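Q: What changes when flavin mononucleotide is included in the input?
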Amino acid sequence: MRTSLCDKLGIEHPIVGFTPSEHVAAAISRAGGLGVLGCVRFNDAADLAKVLDWMDENTDGKPYGVDVVMPAKIPTEGAAIDLDKLIPPGHKDFVERTLQKLGVPPLAGEGRAGVLGWLHSVARSHVDVALEHPVKLIANALGSPPIDVIDKAHEHGVLVAALAGKAEHARSHVANGVDIVVAQGYEAGGHTGEIATMVLVPEVVDAVDVPVLAAGGIGTGRQVAAALALGAEGVWMGSYWLTTAEYTESLGESAMQEALLGATSSDTVRTRIYTGKPARLLKTKWTEAWAADGAPQPLPMPLQNLLVAEAHDRISRANDPAVVSMPVGQIVGRMSEIRSVHDVMSALLRETEQTMARLRDL
Ligand SMILES: Cc1cc2nc3c(=O)[nH]c(=O)nc-3n(C[C@H](O)[C@H](O)[C@H](O)COP(=O)(O)O)c2cc1C
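A: The predicted holo structure follows.
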């Protein structure tokens, strides 16, 4: 199975995998897809530089990409300390009361400062570090990257992708110089729009003249074949890698993976509680507390993430499958065992071929 995207990106299979784990990203690239490392968690660009050095040593010379988060419309600068003053005390009380009610203990030491990767200054530092490495693709969530960032990537021979939840967004990405559009439907894990993948992908394919990757709800070869049938040149998958053995290698055994393995496709919710923008998360006692009567409205990005950053640390240390805060898409219903990235890729490719053969015989 080859499409024009394979030549463009120098990959064997048109399967692109977004992941926050370098172990998973490297394994996707080694398996012939394109591993794309999510950079938003790196508050310090020096840490990203070390991880990309590791990627260079562990991808067998195969291409890989990075994903940065430059939201089109948020306050772009500001030290965490100033932003912290904008968080209403009532919201902090609610978070503390909820954690106590859910039996999530305080941290023994210091928590994290919160994710600062949404700030343009930090995301730009990610781009600068990435361009010192042999990355093939820089993708941006939540809008087109600024035009000077696109130009800089192009000067380095690096392609630029951007996620789109509407055909209108895709048109504006291409007008800004974006090379590849990721059409990401409502089913997807993480930040997501309101249009389902089945409707969105052909709309975006018809709206732009650059390759389109289909995203949202993909985890089987039948879904890959469907994406190609809808006109996509390949797929972009995020959730499915969360239950790979390489993800366990990054995190250690976790209640989060246990919770994902037990979830059905009904067990997700689209909510603003993770970052302030609508994102699909696993439905747990934490998301339910925010949906209950009397809970405050989530704050806008980037304040909401600063509000819940320490709570996220506490929740992950408590390691309770009933209280998890994790982005995941509706495809979670098919994530029922831990497998290696290699096995996931082989199964996807095998089923895609079988599906295409079955369709040819109709
Ligand atoms: C845990 C998780 C974190 C994500 N974080 C980001 C991110 O930082 N940047 C981004 O562009 N997309 C992010 N996404 C969205 C993915 O890139 C991808 O579009 C989405 O997962 C595709 O749908 P699927 O979850 O059904 O595979 C995230 C998704 C998940 C599951």
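Observations recorded in class: The pocket of flavin mononucleotide is lined by residues 18, 20, 38, 40, 67, 69, 139, 141, 163, 184, 187-190, 215-218, 236-240, 327-329, 331 (CB under 6 Å).
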